[in-house]
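step: validate -> pass
step: tokenize input -> pass
step: predict -> running
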Amino acid sequence: MGEDVGGVRRRVVLVSYEYAFATFSGNGVLAASTARGLRDRFRDDVMVVCARPIEEEEEDARLGRRSDDDGERDDINEEKTKNMPDEVRDEERGTIVVVSVPVPKSKWGRLDKTCAHEEFAKNVSEKQLETVVTFGANHVLGVDWSSLELYKRIRKRYEDEETKSKIPPPPLTCLIYRVFTLHDESHRELELSMVSAASRVICLCNNDAEFLRDAFLNVGEEAVAVEVIHPPLREDVLKDATNALAQEQPLVSSARDKKKRNALTCVVRLSKEKEPERFVELVEELAKRNAFFSGNGGDGANDDNDDDALIPILVAPATSEFAEGLKKRFREATKNIPNASELCIESFLNAKQLGKIYSRTKLNVHPCRKDAYGMTVIEAAAFGAPSLVCSGGKVGSSELLVENEGVFSFDYDNETIEALANFITNIDENRLEEVSKIGRERALAYDEIEYAGLIAQRLMMPKECVKSIHGLADAYANALIAFSLDESGENVTILTRSTDKDNNDVDDKINSNNNYIISNNMEVEGWIITADNPHSMRTSIVANAEAKKALKRKLMETFSPVQLGRSMTSEYDSNNPDFGGMDWTERGYFIPFIGGETKSRISIEHLVLEIGRNFGQNAVYFIQRRSGENGFKVTVVSCTNDMEELRSTVEMIPRNIPEIRHMILANNDGDSDADDYE
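step: predict -> pass
step: emit ->
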């Protein structure tokens, strides 16, 4: 059976409106991944409480039966033959038990407040609640706000039983798969109630986390810790994508023998928040340019072979008025393409069918400006199909793949459809291959098992530990971080928190010169690490200097031939006039990330964290600046074992403080680091 720390049996209840029956969105997919991952990684026993759509007449009959003297209906595992996820009763793997709650089919297919969330809570029977309590869960995971009212009924049943059994109700961890308030303010109170009831909140991307903190977490005295865990590739997609990769043959030199990727695809739900009209408009623009014939510009009349032609594919299994209008426009734009009737796919596709499309995809277009995650981007990447997403970190999946490394990005907010068409038709083939390779590696490396490990860490971790790393990052709201890109100290960047906008010293446009390298097109990425004051204990200047020398030797051994830079971090006190307001400093090194290999980035971070632990550090700092950005992102990453995924990010912008510049440049003979502190 499942075991927690210390050999204590662990059981988890997952409350998810969508799970086992006629799944229609990524919520059901991710809920299934969560259950499987916990079972397979930790041999946990998982009970899933989910909704099951039924016809109205069946609902009437059900209600009639509930009034009979025979007792209430038990809907546990009653439809084992109907679209049920695998139910395992293997002691080596743990179990998944499904409790289904009937809801009206007329409200199925929706996740907003028009769904059957009230019926979901109301229709769970007393017998089912008894079964949930008897299960003896250590934790309850509730997916989105729609799970709250049912959780309240579970909690009340625990409280009723507590007087007899002394078993307290398990805490609620809120899994935010979609932040509805971002698109519809009418959901604010629903989501606020859910977040307020939870002991911790886990969402899919940093944008969602930031919104939740700003919108909800200042309510009340005790803030809830919000964390980010990216969704994994689901089991069947991972299997098919791995098999597809293994079967692929190296490309031969003959163009005739190459297996062409020529599809321009869009695989999103045809709903307004996904903005699929952007893809349809793009197809209309490309059709005007005759881009769907070989030669990208020929009229196709004299082409003997159109194998090189770009082929648009829209996966569109939706029947709303909005969806039908878009499909009509798409068909009109593609009517002259051979086999045009096959380009708009209206049936639901399984993993294998999607894999066949992605395996012929040259570029997958994710059309929305904002998306909590966008799992289709990861799925496409797993099959070697790079995606195009909105720039600026507005699509959660780009956090895993990294913009302009494992996924292309484009400014949907400010650029025209014509510019988008130009971008797509002018993508370099070598660049496509490079992005495809990096994206594929990153997508395949993160599976349900890894995801479950991160979920379990949060469940086992005291809330105070979660808050501590956010507190550390908050401390850097008034911090200064300085670093050079080489140890000579000739190129120095001075940073402070971007919210310090009222300070006259702030200069968003520090130009390149002998001392600063801030320019609009400069990109920086790397890690800052120090050996000072291990275990947060103030240590003498001499001891810190000796530790710094040892750290330098270790870093040069580990990362050779990477050129280390110098760094300094400081608490910042505007009331302290010395050193530009610095109250306390630590010196260390900057390790730049050079190269685009997926594994190198991951392995470097792991090595940095290991070194940080060995030198008694609580955290290291990841520095990142993209071309065109004014400021930097500084991510505080915990060095504590099993807490590496605990991290928090602050935004910082350049500051010109001469005193700090002189301090970081001070090096004397290059090795006398003790002198640096004097």
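step: describe -> The first strand starts at residue 11 and ends at 16.
step: cleanup -> pass
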